Amino acid sequence: MAAETVVSAVVAVAEEVAGNMKKSSVVQKLLIDVVCAGLALVLFALFHHVLPRQQQSLGITVSNSVSSEKITESNVTPTPEAAGIIASASINDVSFPSASGSQQSSIQQSSRSDRQTSSGRGSRSGRGSKNGGMNSKGGSALEEDAVTDVNADTIAAEASDTAISDKFADKYTDTIIVTENSYSSPDISVTVTEETLGQTTYYLADIYVRDITCFQTALANDTYGSGFRDSIEDMALLNNALLAVNGDYYGNTNEGVVIRNGVIYRANSTNCDVCVLYYDGTMRVMPGSSFSVEEAVEQGAWQAWTFGPALLNTDGSVLTSFASTNRIISANPRTAIGYYEPGHYCLIVVDGRGESAGITLPDLSRLFYDLGCRAAYNLDGGNSSVMVWNNEVINNPSGGGRESSDALLIAEVNADE
């Protein structure tokens, strides 16, 4: 009897333990499910809110035709295979004036595969002070009223000049001729030289283009957005460029204007100087507070960059004062663009932080003045400053160089030539 009681007690305890273990297993399973669900929510929040998201695009193309359409924005990020198949919705009743006079342009929906959705509204940008203020890029040392007056006269005068296609006929050749440091064809003439200025080494590309669309830009991974970077060498190779330099690294900020190959991706306010290259070959540099995307469309903007500062005054004279930080003004590696007249430009990359001392903004201004440029503009510098010629990096980039979100290119557009 006692044995039976003991056995019964043992069985009862065993059943209770088994029941508790079963309950414990259920609790453990529930806890594991809760933890997994929490981790999933954390990962979703991380990827959705923290990691770089693609910046947004107005999705409009500036062209030289004479029509005006309602602006549209893309709601879909298409793949390269689906280029031109874009789902779009209208931007809240935003429209630009149709062009008039000798410089006519229109707004067309872009079919580029790298367009993204838009937060911009095409409004007049610029909320900074008249002189641009201090910033980490290039504040303006130009006076807004003077820029407006001088450039209005300049555009009127240059519009009546010889067409860009008829200028500099002696610079082009009927067939493609290539040397170690030069290239010429029916549409392009480029000569690249290595120069010294005291303790500074710089690389000068003297450029003539018969067709302004030979002066191109490239986006890293052929995609617009803040999360995309690539080497200048790779961007040059992928776009069959003869010459390439880094651009304004637009992906490092949300401010300012981004117009690339006639497509307006962004037109936000900025107190940095803005540089615009137009279809007729003219180039203007202005304070961000003077920039109007409506005027840019009307006048036929082909490219536009936001970095700066301007490197020459409105009359082409040397600038000695800059509304920028001492870090920006002091000697650094540099990339900059110079403008002589429609069809004639130069690109300069300055080595620094090594055997070459770099160059200050006042000295860079003096260099462009001595070259005879009428306007000049500072692009991203430091480790970004890279020049590629014939698919090779020819300068000595600081820190070995770095990837960027964009590049300036010189490339043939007539494949049959």
User: The biggest beta sheet, please?
Assistant: 7 strands, antiparallel
Which ranges are low-confidence, i.e. pLDDT below 50, for 5 or more consecutive residues?
A: 44-56, 64-135, 145-152
The total count of helices amounts to 6
Task: Tell me the structural class.
Answer: alpha+beta
Per DSSP, what share of the residues sits in E-state strands of 2 or more residues? 15-25%
General form: globular
Strand line-up across the major sheet:
5-6-7-8-17-16-18
Q: In total, how many domains does the architecture comprise?
A: 2
Radius of gyration equals 29 Å
For the secondary structure, the number of strands is: 21
- The averaged pLDDT comes out at 76
Helix content: 10-25%
Span from first to last CA? 110 Å
**How do the helices and strands follow one another from N- to C-terminus?**
HEEEEHEEEEEHEEEEEHEHEEHEEEE
